[in-house]
Amino acid sequence: MTEKIESLEDIIKDEPAFRRQQIYLAWFDKNIHSFEEITTLSKDLRAKLKNIPWMTVKERVLQQSKIDGTRKALLEFADGRVVESVLMPRVSKKMIPGDKPRYTICVSSQVGCPMACTFCATGKLGFSRNLTYREIIDQMRYWQELLWKTEEGKVDNIVFMGQGEPLLNYNNVKLALNILIKGAEIGPRKITVSTVGLAETMNKMVDDKHWPPVRFALSLHSAINENRTSIMPSNRADFLDFLVDWSKRYHLAFPSRTHFIGIEYIMLGGVNDSPKNLDALIKLVQKMGSVKVNLIPYNPGSKKDFFGATPIETIKHWQEKMNQKNIICTVRRSQGLDIAAACGQLANLDKQND
Ligand code: SAH
After folding, report:
1. Which residues in the chain land under pLDDT 70?
2. What is the CATH number of the domain that holds 299?
3. How far is the centre of ligand 1, averaged over its atoms, from the C-alpha of 80 (Å)?
4. Is-contact 46 36, C-beta < 8 A?
5. Are 165 and 196 in contact (CB under 8 A)?
6. The domain containing residue 161 runs over which residues?
């Protein structure tokens, strides 16, 4: 009879909280490369952890954009499944020669995605499974290690905007967030969780005392309900009314004045970019309290794609109109377009040529 292989969770389930913390801290320590090297743990515990893999992701392919230096990795897990994860350098005007860039990483929370948004390449893959909390944080550890090796700088911003719908994997995402905040010492304001908008889970989140005060972003893409349903099949008939009501509760739960609700809006030519759409968006966000609108130029997916991009003049016009109404509005700069690493293009390298 073969012996059951114990998982990390089996081994540490009865350990006190501080022991777990020691492990979480060690995962982000540049000088520790195995459980055996965590000298704060007892010898006995270290022996038990001997066969547990130190990393749950393995690099299968790594690509780099020639335009802006964005890197995209295809990462493989123990079961052979893969996700994509992205590293984006942030160049700031304040940088002086010799300064190392800061990096934002875009992490995945599921293998594939069941939400089937019509404009998103990941949606076309369908859903395979949720990632474990380790598979989520190990994307960060993978990028950090790469930057350590090349002495290029550090990751200081994390967006959950890779493959998958984070709120469908609530418990793993929550644990990963808490470990990242404590272990990697990334402030909660430097982490953004982006969602398609799942009402029940959004309710659960605002009531959850253990959900950390990370930034929240909603993929809105239309403030006209039928229009939203036509591009996002997961939309509910009463979603926009719910959103207004929910926003009030969100602001009560996270009262800091700098805690905006992020609104993401992909501009799809002839689909959601009419003057009527703009009016509806302005009316909606004015009811939502403190928000920050981020207009996203559409990034084409596969060759079979049927959406077109909105002209940049229209996007600028929307931005001006919103600024005139005192609504903070930015336009997202797409990074990594030449290696299909931009928003909505994450479709796993081996499937891209289908
Ligand atoms: N499921 C989550 C997180 C992944 S998507 C969500 O929907 O928010 C991350 C962001 O990329 C979202 O705002 C998403 O709507 C946007 N996106 C998807 N496809 C895109 C495309 N083709 N061009 C530009 N942005 C896209």
Report:
1. 1-5, 257-258, 301-305, 349-354
2. 3.20.20.70
3. 25
4. yes
5. yes
6. 55-339
Ligand 1 atom nearest 194 alpha carbon: 8
Our answer on whether the CB atom of 296 is closer than 6 Å to any ligand 1 atom is yes
Which residues have a catalytic role annotated? 84, 343
The reported pTM is: 0.94
Tokens 């289908």 -> residue? 354
Which residues are registered as beta bridge partners of 141?
A: none
218 lines ligand 1 (CB under 6 A): no
Considering the domain boundaries, does residue 180 fall inside one?
A: yes
Would you state the pLDDT for residue 188? Answer: 94
Residue 352 domain-assigned (yes or no)? no
Within-domain flag for 160:
yes
CB atoms within 10 A of CB 296: 23
Does 295 sit in the ligand 1 pocket, CB within 6 Å? no
For the Cβ of 103 lying below 6 angstroms from any atom of ligand 1, the answer is no
* Protein residue closest via CA to atom 20 of ligand 1: 344
Domain count, the chain: 1
In this prediction, residue 303 carries a pLDDT of 57
